[in-house]
Write a structure and sequence with these properties.
Shape: globular
Bound molecules: adenosine-5'-diphosphate, zinc ion
Structural class: alpha/beta
Mean pLDDT: 89
Strand order of the largest sheet: 14-15-13-16-17-12-18
Low-confidence stretches: 1-7, 10-15
Strand content: 15-25%
Length: 755
């Protein structure tokens, strides 16, 4: 769609002397733009798309974005309201970003106004200037005379301020430093007409321009060829998939490609999955380039976010590093996009109405910009591997370890028929003892936080349920609470069965319980636990890493958290406590996730000189997924898994969209989805979209969650354009269904999970 081929729209000459009609997108769920006349007295002939405009909306004001200018409106000219004011001189999106946002609104079927305004920081959405302004105060002619006359006589503070201003204008910052409660005095002086303020644009605090890169280590041959491939593509679109486990030197490749991009005067965008990973990476970029990257993540304050955004928009930010939403940072001189850990599910927005994939949008953005994009991962998503096979991504790979250490030895521990001690098999205990004795560190991985996943009465069979969900409550011993991991509900831990009064007991294992058991079994080995209950902020994480890196801690127990990014060079043994969660999930993507976690966690072993050992405890040693993974590694697994997806018609071989609905009871959700399906069937017939099929509705596998009932309808097509064509017609109709009023619903295009 080339509707934004140029970014200004000329409305002159206008023989009819009619005023142009401004098409403004507003932050509303309505799928339309709104027509306004220019603000009173604004007779400009050129209107730039992407500027913010203040408009009346109902009885209130709103900040909207100009998306188009037309000669006429469907409304008669005398019914059109006037915009109140133009906020920006220049668009607040670069041209490619504006196009990307239009594309995203179409692709994800989300209202344009929400998408456009949602891409701005909160303060900019409310109208904050696109660059910092400094308010300056100076005396008027009256004020100068009054200062000479020693006025105002009875207000010493005002008099003092007037005297100071008479000898020279001052910025707000200077006034604040010089006078306590300066605003009160300034207000009075202004009321008397003695002083006046004016705005001038000023720069947000920014570091010095990038110094010449501090040299990193000399690159290996594989790193060099990866860097060369990316550098050769600077200035054109090409997508690369860089394979390499943690520690194999991917970041070095990013740094070199970034340096080359900066040398061409271009900006670099680096997307990472977690805030927890940013400090390390920020530090590394800062050291290499002598200037801290501009960062975007969810922990920024509104003001910090505004400042970061302004730096991007002005082009002063040379390196921009952030999580998912940073894909919307304005980058007028973008030259390279890097996506680290591209397989990570956090790149997909899974909440709210706009469920975009930052990775997919980054690819689209790079394509529009004509710049390279570099995806990195040890365990690429099956989609990306499929894209390599189809010739869409160029494959680059790094050998297993930068230091050349041996890959770890993987072993399956069959739990069947074994007597376990605290869920640990004899062979596992023996291995932990051996590695600790040899001064190695041991990592025990269990993807379940809390003490135990169930609280059970062995007399009557009662199990502590969540009252809001079809789920059990998890026991948290640290603060003696029961918590639901699905809705967050909690209550005090019970000791007696509420049904029969018998003593209840925890069943199953969580990280807290394993920690307790390991402390008891290996009292001489200091232990660190890494999970969301233990590590609540950056400082906790830094402390935990410090204890591990110094070698003081010998045992590490952790969830998923340990599989992300971090390097534990002293770890020689990894124990996967329970590989079986995930082996039998109904979600088509569960096997991929499990394989990624297993490979990522296994990759933590034996980073230093010593070879590592990985033990995977399971009740299902013959499970084909474990077997392919063991025999063929991640690549072998991926080949088999892609074949399975192909034969079962799952992505990436088909395109999916999920319409999800929830209501206080199940029937309204099902009724709505059924009506949506009937509507869809009619559209398919009318448009010959036979390749699109509708499956469902079906209740979610956990139907009741947070006291609402959830159900879904899946839309599937082998052809992406057909699916898009279908959705574009279907979604507005779905919104207009009478049944829609009784439910909450959301459309998820390319859903990560179907349940
Ligand atoms: P990844 O991003 O794949 O985890 P890094 O780039 O962080 O890998 O590299 C891991 C470690 O190895 C870092 O300490 C890095 O400085 C070092 N390293 C990377 N490449 C080389 C190299 N060519 N020579 C020596 N050390 C390297
Ligand atoms: Zn009981
Ligand atoms: Zn719950």
């Amino acid at each position: 769609v080339a509707r934004h081929a140029d970014d200004t729209a000329s409305t002159a000459p206008n023989p009819a002397h009619r005023e142009p009609v401004l098409k403004v997108a507003l932050d509303t769920p309505l799928r339309r733009v709104f027509d306004y006349l220019p603000p009173a007295g604004d007779a400009r002939h050129e209107w730039s798309r992407g500027i913010r405009i203040r408009v009346p909306f109902g009885r209130r004001q709103q900040v909207g974005v100009l998306v188009d200018v037309a000669r006429q409106s469907e409304l008669p000219q005398d019914k059109l309201r006037r915009a109140l004011g133009v906020i920006d001189e220049r668009p607040v999106y670069d041209a490619a970003l504006l196009e990307l946002l239009h594309w995203a609104s179409d692709y994800y079927q989300h209202p344009l106004g929400n998408v456009l305004l949602g891409a701005l920081p909160t303060l900019a959405r409310a109208g904050a200037a696109d660059q910092a302004t400094i308010t300056q105060w100076a005396v008027t002619a009256d004020g100068a005379a009054a200062a000479v006359a020693g006025e105002p006589r009875r207000a010493p503070r005002q008099r003092e301020m007037l005297q100071r201003l008479a000898s020279g204008a001052m910025d707000e910052d200077e006034l604040r430093d010089a006078f306590a409660d300066w605003r009160g005095a300034a207000r009075e002086l202004m009321r008397r007409g003695f002083i006046a303020s004016s705005e001038r644009s000023g720069a947000d605090p920014a570091g010095p321009p990038p110094a010449e890169a501090r040299a990193g280590p000399p690159l290996s041959a594989e790193q060099q060829s990866a860097v060369q491939a990316v550098c050769a593509a600077l200035g054109e679109y090409r997508s690369f998939l860089l394979r390499g486990i943690t520690g194999s030197g991917k970041t070095e490749v990013y740094l070199h490609a970034a340096a080359a991009t900066l040398r061409r005067g271009r900006q670099v965008l680096v997307l990472v999955p977690e805030i927890a990973l940013t400090p390390q990476l920020v530090e590394r970029f800062a050291q290499r380039f002598g200037v801290a990257p501009v960062v975007f993540h969810s922990a920024l304050t509104d003001t910090q976010r505004l400042i970061a955004w302004r730096q991007c928009l002005s082009g002063r930010a040379r390196i921009v590093l952030g999580t998912r939403s940073a894909v919307f940072a304005p980058l007028p001189a973008a030259g390279l996009i890097v996506i680290d850990e591209e397989h990570d599910p956090s790149f997909k927005q899974q909440q709210g109405g706009f469920r975009y994939s930052a990775r997919d949008l980054a690819l689209v953005r790079a394509h529009r910009l004509g710049i390279p994009v570099l995806l990195g991962s040890a365990t690429p998503s099956l989609e990306s591997l499929h894209n390599v096979a189809a010739g869409r991504h160029v494959a680059l790979s790094l050998p297993r370890r930068a230091g050349g250490a041996e890959p770890p030895i993987l072993r399956i521990i069959d739990l069947r028929g074994q007597t376990l001690r605290n869920r640990l098999a004899g062979a596992t205990i023996e291995a932990i003892t051996r590695h600790l004795a040899a001064d190695g560190q041991v990592l025990v991985y269990l993807n379940r936080r809390g003490y135990a996943p169930t609280l059970v009465c062995s007399a009557c069979g009662w199990i502590a349920p969540c009252t809001q969900c079809d789920a059990r409550m998890t026991i948290h011993r640290a603060d003696d609470r029961l918590r639901c991991h699905h809705c967050g509900a909690e209550r005090p831990l019970l000791h007696q069965c509420p049904q029969c009064g018998y003593a209840v007991k925890p069943v199953g294992q969580g990280t807290e319980r394993i920690e307790e058991a390991l402390i008891e079994m290996f009292p001489q080995a200091p232990l660190v636990r890494l999970d969301r209950d233990m590590v609540r902020n950056q400082e906790d994480l830094t402390n935990a890493y410090a204890r591990l890196h110094s070698g003081e801690a010998r045992l590490l127990v952790g969830t998923q958290m340990v599989t992300k990014g971090h390097d534990f060079p002293g770890v020689t043994l990894v124990v996967v406590l329970n590989a079986d969660q995930g082996l039998f999930s109904i979600d088509y993507r569960a096997a991929e996730r499990l394989a990624q976690s297993l490979v990522q966690v296994a990759g933590r072993a034996g980073r230093g000189q010593r070879p590592g050992e990985v033990l995977i405890q399971t009740e299902h040693p013959e499970h084909p997924m474990l077997q392919t993974l063991l025999r063929g590694g991640y690549d072998g697994f991926a080949r088999v898994a892609l074949e399975e997806r192909r034969s079962a018609n799952w992505p990436p071989f088909v395109r999916l969209a999920a319409l999800r609905a929830s209501a206080p009871t199940l029937p309204p959700a099902i009724d709505f989805l059924r009506a949506a399906r009937n509507l869809g069937a009619a559209i398919r017939r009318a448009d010959g979209l036979d390749a699109v099929s509708l499956n469902g509705p079906a209740p979610a596998s956990m139907a009741r969650r947070a006291d609402r009932y959830h159900a879904q309808l899946l839309v599937e097509s082998a052809s992406r354009p057909d699916l898009q064509r279908f959705l574009a017609q279907w979604v507005p109709g779905v919104e207009a269904l009478p049944e829609a009023r009784r439910v909450r619903f959301v459309l998820d295009v390319d859903p990560l999970e179907v349940f």
